[in-house]
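Appendix B. Chain record.
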Amino acid sequence: MNDVLSNLEVVRRFAEDGLGKADMAAFDATVAEDVVVETGLSPARPIVGRENYKAIYAGFAECWPVRKFRTDEIFGADDKVVLRFTATAAFIKDYYGVAATRQIADLKEVHLLTLRDGKIVHNIVSGTNFPFEYIMYPALKDAVIGSLPVAE
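Structure tokens predicted for this chain:
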């Protein structure tokens, strides 16, 4: 299960079902128990553990459900897979204290995933999610900017 084609299928299922449909069974099937995830959904520190990842993502998906998911690009080598996708989501429920606007935004993300024994063990998420970031600015500014050290 460690070959590149298998890893691509694991990541595709994780993305299309787990992220695109908020299917927690897909997280269970594709993500290792001890996963580490570096993502804006936890701006202060990485997410550690599948159950934490599921809880954080489920909270996001409840407020920003994906209406359309498109895999734009996916490729891999050895134990690494790179995935680029566009998820169209609507802000329907208050999130991190920011009032829902019902606006629809395209979330464009790149995930660099490392797999071991057919499961995702590390995920580094980068995005060009300007509409999301601007809408969520009241919460993100304190979580991201507020944690930066100040020069003396």
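Further analysis of this model is presented in Appendix C.
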